[in-house]
Amino acid sequence: MDADFSHHPKFIPGFIDRQRRTGCDIVTGTRYAGQGGVYGWDLKRKMVSRGANLVADTVLRPGVSDLTGSFRLYRREVLEKVMGVTESKG
Length: 90
Known about the structure:
The protein is mainly α. The chain is built from three helices and two strands; from the N terminus they run H-E-H-E-H.
């Protein structure tokens, strides 16, 4: 979750519920489907976000609608595993 409150905390209980019901390792929010949205963004920020998602989707083909958002819930064990094999280079 970003620290700028561009993602509303009211959605966190739904993330937890979804993870408990499905047993999935990662629950990710999107600004571009369902109840998602962006509030308080100017046109430039919206266009940059959409453009970045278009490029990322074209290159990576991940099958999700919002790669640039950071509104995610990770299962603790999965996050610890990812962090254990991730190397920061700057």
